Structure formats: C-alpha cells, structure tokens
Amino acid sequence: MELCxxxxxxxxxxxxxxxxxxxxxxxxxxxxxxxxTLTCLDLWFRAGSSLEKAGEEGLxxxxxxxxxKGSNTHKAGEFDRKIEALGGSSNAATGFDDVHFYxxxxxxxxxxxxxxxxxxxxxxxxxPDPFAMEREVVLEEIAQHNDQPEEQxxxxxxxxCWKDHPYGRPILGLKESLENLTPKRMKxxxxxxxxxxxxxxxxxxxxQDEMIHFINRSHLSTLSPKNASIKGNAGVSRxxxxxGRETIQIARLESARxxxxxPIAAAHDQQLIMGADIATTIFCEGRSSRLIRRLREELQIVxxxxxxxxxxxxxxxxxxxxxxxxxxxxxxxxxxxxxxIESLITAVDKKELDRACHLVRNSLCFSxxxxxxxxGMAGTHMLWGRQQSLLAPLQHIQYWSAERLKKEIxxxxxxxxxxxxxxxxxxx
Length: 428
Prior knowledge:
The chain has 428 residues and is α+β, with helices and mostly antiparallel strands. It is built from 15 helices and eleven strands. The protein folds into two domains: 211 residues, 2-Layer Sandwich (Cytochrome Bc1 Complex, Chain A, domain 1), CATH 3.30.830.10; 182 residues, CATH 3.30.830.10. The strands form two sheets. Strands 1-2-6-3-5-4 form a six-stranded mixed β-sheet, with helices on both faces. Strands 7-11-8-10-9 form a five-stranded mixed β-sheet, with helices on both faces.
C-alpha cells in the first residue's frame, strides 16, 4: 500500500516515468520503484486482433501462443525454464488493439530476463510441428469459449452493435480462418506488425542505474521499421455504431440478461472518457447509485446490475448489464429506461457528483499498486502516443460539472441511442 499512499499524496503525478525512444523508433518507458521486490518487464506491440486482414481472424492471439513455443536461439520450453530459474514468472495477453508479453523477476536478474524476453518475442521460430499442435489448442479454446452461455451473449452484443468493424469479431478468432493458416502467413503477420515503431518496452520496479544504457544496446535496437507504423488515433473517425433492440434465447443461460451498449470516444479523448467514467459511477457504483438503489435495493428485481466502460483506441463502449428472472425482464428494462430518461430531468446534485469523482479518482490510484499494473498502464499509454504521467487523466475531473455531464454524456446514454440485447434461457 506504500505506493498507493504516495500516489494519493501527489494525485496528479503518480510514479515518476522516464520516456525515450531508440534510434529505430522503439519506445521505452521506465517507472522506478526502489522498494519493489519484483520488477516487471512488459513488451508491447500494436498487433491486436483488429489489425488482422481478411482470412487472418485469430492470428494475433495464435501468434501469442506460438511465441512461447521457442525462438531461433531457444528451444520450446527453454524460456520458461530459464525465467523460473531466475525466480520469475511470465505471461501474455492479446487485445483488440495490441498484444503484450511480460515477465516479473527479482531486480538483480532484470538484464538476463530482458534479453530472454526480447529474443522470445522478436525471433519466434514458428516451426511447422509446434504450429500444428498449438493450433489444436487454440481451436479447443475457441470451442470452450463458444460453449459458455455468458460469452455467447456478450459476443452477440459486440457483433451486433459493431457489425462492420473488427471490434465486433472475437479476439480468439474464427475456426475456419485458423484451420487455413500456415506458418508462413504467421511469419508475414509478425514481420508486418512486430516492427520497431509499433513496439514499446515498459519497465516498472527496482531499476539499476545502468538500465537505460543496457536497453539502448539491447536487441530491441535491431528491430527494423519494415513498414509504416500504425499511428495513434487522433483524427480517426468514429466507429459506425448500430442502434436497435434484439431478443435471443441461449441454451443453459442461468438468468435472463438485459444488455445495453452506447458508443464512447476513442482512448485518446481522455476528457470524454473521464466524463463517461463519472456518469457510470453515478448510475451504478455502490448501493447509493441510481440503478443499484432502485433495482436491487428498493424493487429487488435484479440479481445484479453493472455499468462500466470499455476503452479502445478507435472508440469504445459504455456497457450496462442486468441479470434477473425471466418474468421480470420487462419491468427491469422499463425501470432502466426510465432512470436513464430521468437523468436529463433530475439534476446530479453536488453530493452525488463529489462522491462519483472521489470513487473514480481512488479507482485509478488504487490500480497503481503493483509493478505489473504500472508497467501495463505506462506501456499502453506510451505505445499509443500518450506520453504522460500515469495519473494525468485525473486532471479532467475538474472539468465535469453537473451541467456538462448532462449536456455531453447523459444525453448520449439514452434508450433510443443504445443497442439493447435481451437474452433469456432457451426453453427445453
């Protein structure tokens, strides 16, 4: 909790960051945390699923798997054994916009761990036999994902409201595309997107004095800007969002679900993102929030109700989900719609606004307690051209008055501007 106390005392700065770029355009950021017992090394690339071409659906995630199957200098499993021998652990994740690979190790072994990580990611072997075996693993992962009722509902929502955009596709990909992929096509994807100007190395934790010099002469400096990099999203037009309403039945779904989605600004528009965060907190954070108080505390007609934001580089979503009994669906939907409409009539009072701003501020501060959290946030900001302090978004809180929330945010979170999906259990 020491880091958290520090960030609260210096609420608009957070951990001090060092930003720089290598000669080839690779971005680097370091957050020094002298008291941390572990250091996180996080290597990011603009190579998420939304950057796949036709026929490549699922390739970004599949490549994440294959990276761990050996490099040109390390056999399959050798990386994991060496990292574990150093007292560390490793993992990776693929998103719509980007992919990252990270290790956590004691401070004294940061340099050999970083050499291993860089070699693993920029020189994957992508051999035919491991490729064929790992494809079956990914296909099984897709099958298991598709067999989960809740995941089916959520994917249907994304596919419907983002119908003509890659964000509407599952990150895991499509079975047909994966079955037709070859190691050569994966190598082409890696060559196309795993380039210096699409790369960011983020490090948080105990940092040795010579670390910057070590990074500057590491194999990251050999990465080539083979293609034009994927630029940040300033000026990118808004995603075509489809409004409407749909009702579906899903086998083995335990409760009925009401989902609503609204489009929000891209990640670079942090002021609007902050406004949406404050608004969703007013609606649905804690027992005194409007939706929870009305639906769960007073009427007791929902099992749960949540409202959150999904922030993405080309435009995100505000998502609302209520779980209830099938017989209560109509009443729950009516109450939700009425509360949304009433938000334009019943003003947000000072106490309500102050509470929401306080919760939003604390949520960001509390998300910066671990080296892995700090490296992740610093890395994604730097990757997409947002060179700033980690808590810089908090400066936008002061912009949001009750009137501005109503005019710029609440007027957009209205029933007629949403995509609504009603999912109920399939009767046997």
